[in-house]
């Protein structure tokens, strides 16, 4: 459903040019949860920005459902890492969640979707509050609710739980999984946390260091029912985790495929 | 438990100062410092009833018109310029110069072009007071948090939504700061222009009293002007707190007043 | 398996430029803007909507300005305005900073004077003009008094905000490390408050200039404002516009200098300003 072809991205011109992405090729089938991991500075955020049309790739293309991406595509949502900066402080939570749908859908439908998505993230009571009244984890949930209410076909998430404490992160991970199973959305999840990537995904795309290419695409064939305790105790989990971490921390010349 | 002490200080000290002034000046023979009691009598006599309508109201109406026009025009101009880097680079030096001309220096110009007419006074006020609004709005519009702009792009908000739901609310603290300066310039120009060339109005009254050496009347006029300034600022702060209640600096107990 | 489709076009809408080129473009456009504004003024004057007397052409005014510089007539009123401005501002600094620090550190003092200050603060400086004119006549003393009464507030309040903005945690840390009160004042409070003081100084110096001109225009004290008024009553409108332009230039220079100082002191510090304009 999402196809990335020979994607490169270079910043600047001439001698000071920096090539962030050296050439990425991968495909994300519909309904799958795919994580993208890689060393720091590997251009993961740049990749996401190219995918949702915020940046134009230098060469290569991105196609959604066969259609090339030239600007922000329909039916794609992005959850940012900096949740504090991504919510509008002057609107209530309810208005924030409903904002992307204003002028596109009738008012009743917006109200309903807002209510449902806030409830699905456990914030059904907070619709009339303001972002500053909520904790960090709750604000990120609002951002997720906003994405969910939008009913995107593809949901991009840019290290969404990096700024949240471990306890909350576990809750948010499970929440995201539940939502994905419920809605059947395709999720592309960027993270630097390999555990998180393996726990959540059906596939993990491992990026190399900058200029980044696809080091490997690792299928995760753990049972689809994930649990923070049991899944992470599985020997399969540990194996996958070790393999991926090795690829990131000790890159060899031979790409593992 | 310092709070009662603070409240006591807030009430008692000003009262003590006023009382000291009252008694220290009660037998004053100095023409410039009449007894506070006399000033108060003059105030009660002069400023209740007819004079209020004759002098203060026309002044306020002129000032209010100038203020409203400056604000609306200023915000519009500032937004247009702020949204376009090009426009800003062309126009900024001229704006900075116009803003740096001390507004009272423009009074002879307005006098020349419009004589004593009311429209002239309003034009003068706008000419002097619009620049802080334009420049602050420009500043605010330019400085919108990039993440919010990205949210607008990804969720495909219409240009109208971008302006009214994102950019202008974000810029509103800056805009209010500019409007506050605009207000004080409006008041200044109103008074000064009336001192220079008018047949009625508060400024005219004060300067006339000075020329005819009616000192108590002069002081009473100054008192009214002081009260006016205080009242207008209080109204402004009230409006600011309502509109900007979502911003951490402007909530009750914030430090931006 | 996938066919590479290279996009040869540059990635961004506008090609990227180096920093020095950026500044050059901005400067060129800025100058163009000024030139266009002057041209518009010239055209407006020549259309005759306003008589040649009331709105002289830009060229006429610029010529007057050049003349005033060439034969030196502008320098005396300029110096007089600056003198009053500088003395007034110096007194403002000498009063506002210590008082601001004092009320910032001693809460009961702040509470005591707050109602009085909050009442006096929004009073336009010109309110006192008639009184001061009576007492001092059209002199520099009157000007300085007016400047003080109007311009003391921005700096005073900014200093206060600056003191208040110092984190209690930092103060406690300094105490725990046995740093003397004097050293605390010098190494903790002073650097922390300096950016606020710079902002306050910028605002106060702008207010001071406006008040100086008012004092000269209406009160008749010597300086640029007085020349503006004299030119207007004398019907020499070219000269009048020229002196207004001089006042504007003075304002620009003061603004640039104080902003430059402020930016230097602010470069490491994130602060929220009382007002941007």
Give the helices and strands, then pairings.
The complex is a heterotrimer of chains A (257), B (257) and C (277).
Chain A lengths: L1 E10 L6 E11 L4 E5 L6 H8 L7 E6 L2 E2 L7 E4 L3 H4 L6 H6 L8 H14 L15 H14 L4 E5 L7 H18 L2 E5 L3 H7 L2 E5 L4 E8 L10 H4 L1 H15 L8
Parallel strand pairs in A: 2-10, 3-8, 3-9, 6-7, 7-8
Antiparallel strand pairs in A: 1-2, 1-4, 4-5, 9-10
Helix pairs in contact in A: 4-5, 5-6, 7-9
Chain B lengths: L2 H22 L11 H12 L2 H34 L1 H16 L6 H8 L3 H25 L3 H9 L4 H38 L5 H10 L3 H29 L14
Helix pairs in contact in B: 2-10, 3-4, 3-6, 3-8, 4-6, 5-6, 6-8, 8-9, 8-10, 9-10
Chain C lengths: L18 H29 L10 H13 L4 H31 L1 H14 L8 H8 L3 H26 L2 H9 L4 H37 L6 H10 L3 H30 L11
Helix pairs in contact in C: 2-10, 3-4, 3-6, 3-8, 3-9, 5-6, 6-8, 8-9, 8-10, 9-10
Structure description:
The complex is a heterotrimer of chains A (257), B (257) and C (277). In chain A, 35% of the residues lie in helices and 24% in strands. Chain A has helices at residues 44-51, 83-86, 93-98, 107-120, 136-149, 166-183, 194-200, 230-233, 235-249; strands spanning 2-11, 18-28, 33-37, 59-64, 67-68, 76-79, 154-158, 186-190, 203-207, 212-219. In chain A, strands 5-4-1-2-10-9-3-8-7-6 form a 10-stranded mixed beta sheet, with helices on both faces. In chain A, helix 5 (136-149) runs parallel beside helix 6 and helix 7 crosses helix 9. The longest helix of chain A has 18 residues, at 166-183. The radius of gyration of chain A is 18 Å and the shape is globular. Chain B has 257 residues and is mostly helical. Mean pLDDT of chain B is 85; it is low at 253-257. In chain B, helix 5 (107-114) packs across helix 6 and helix 8 (159-196) packs parallel to helix 9. The longest helix of chain B has 38 residues, at 159-196. Chain B has one domain (43-248): MetI-like fold. In chain C, helix 6 (140-165) runs antiparallel to helix 8 (181-217). The interface between B and C is large, with 72 and 74 residues.
